[in-house]
Amino acid sequence: MSPFLQETMDCLVQSASGQPQTEVRVKPGLKAPHDVVVHVSAVALNPTDFKSPASNPTPGAIMGCDFMGTVISAGTAADKDFPPATRVCGFVHGSNPGNPETGSFAEYLVTDSRLLIRVPDSWTDLEGAAFGGVGWGTVALAMELSLQLQGRPSKPAPPRDDGSRIPVLVYGGATATGTMACQILSMSGYQPIATASSSSSTLVLDYGAAAVVPYASPTCGETLRDKHTGGNLRHALDCISSPESVKCCFTALGRIGARYAGLDYVPDDWRTRKAIKVHMPLTYALHGHEIKFKGPYHRDADPSMLELGSRWRDEMQGLVDAGRLRPHPAREVRGKWKGIVDGLEMMKAGEVRGQKLVVALDGKDSV
Ligand SMILES: NC(=O)c1ccc[n+]([C@@H]2O[C@H](COP(=O)([O-])OP(=O)(O)OC[C@H]3O[C@@H](n4cnc5c(N)ncnc54)[C@H](OP(=O)(O)O)[C@@H]3O)[C@@H](O)[C@H]2O)c1
């Protein structure tokens, strides 16, 4: 029997102990006009895939966010742009306390087509998975909501009076989010100035950073402030959100109108300068649903987030079609479900630097 006709699928879920385990579930179906059902061929791993089960345990929830696959059925509002057989990549909210069925570590998923990217024929499935959607979605939210930057790839910010570009600090330029931010900021008319280790600085420059400062330097913040931005830095995207990264960003930011986007929660006592506006973008929010996380990670349902995400999706599709945007360097982990579990352990151990772990799901092997 064709796998498309089967009513069940394999997937990777949180067990009661929090460890991932494979399970058989009913295949998801269309629920809304903009939905598509995707046959998932490859996935990419994100730190949230091991952090969320620890911070918001949801036994039985399908894990995973980024995916690549092929549309097998489309709702009435999705059918024109995403007919069956379209290769797509995107992101869903895996390990979701509000809906345990939405993860990408599954043979099939259903998702809103307004956040999907059509994948060019020249990209492999693993490259499509590495592109996913968490990366660009995070940068979109950080630029528009957290940092309130007006430039877009389709309408770049104009240069300043002296002809220079507005600098934006990307702390953690070698993260998957960081290389996406450097590319998009640069195409949006800004000058990305990044931090990275010495072994990753070439990568970060290659993805569009105008300069890279070693974050290990005890004077990282002062160097960014005095040498690279002349005390005029107003925007910092912190992809690390540690006490050291916050200190560096807060030192580098200038006196007037400074905004800081931290990808993880930054406690009040790390914030040494109260005048800096701090905001944490939460990428799951782009789906418009309530995020049923605890504390500062909770978000109310907000349909305007889906509108924001959809606008940025259009920007990203244009760049992808024009060959101007590329995924973080992909590194395959073999072994299907076991490959995902192994990859998450590698990430937890800090063994993954400057690479996006990707796993093929359409192979024959399994745990
Ligand atoms: N709020 C949200 O919605 C959201 C969305 C996406 C990601 N995140 C969070 O953002 C963070 C980054 O995620 P990601 O997937 O982009 O990262 P990633 O690709 O997993 O990051 C790997 C890189 O992190 C850098 N790094 C690790 N420890 C560091 C430290 N102590 N100081 C400075 N750099 C360090 C390394 O850079 P070098 O090679 O230069 O050493 C390494 O190459 C994670 O905490 C993730 O949970 C949040």
From TrEMBL:
What protein am I looking at? Alcohol dehydrogenase GroES-like domain-containing protein
Family designation = Belongs to the zinc-containing alcohol dehydrogenase family.
Output the InterPro entries linked to this UniProt entry.
Answer: ADH-like_N, ER, GroES-like_sf, NAD(P)-bd_dom_sf, Trans-enoyl_RdTase-like
- This protein's record includes keyword Nucleotide-binding: yes
From which lineage does this chain's organism come?
Eukaryota, Fungi, Dikarya, Ascomycota, Pezizomycotina
Name the CDD domains on file: enoyl_reductase_like (cd08249)
For molecular function, the Gene Ontology terms on record are:
nucleotide binding; oxidoreductase activity, acting on NAD(P)H
- What's the superkingdom here? Eukaryota
| Coiled-coil residue windows | none
Q: State the UniProt keywords alphabetically.
A: NADP, Nucleotide-binding, Oxidoreductase
Specify the Enoyl reductase (ER) domain's residue ranges. 18-359
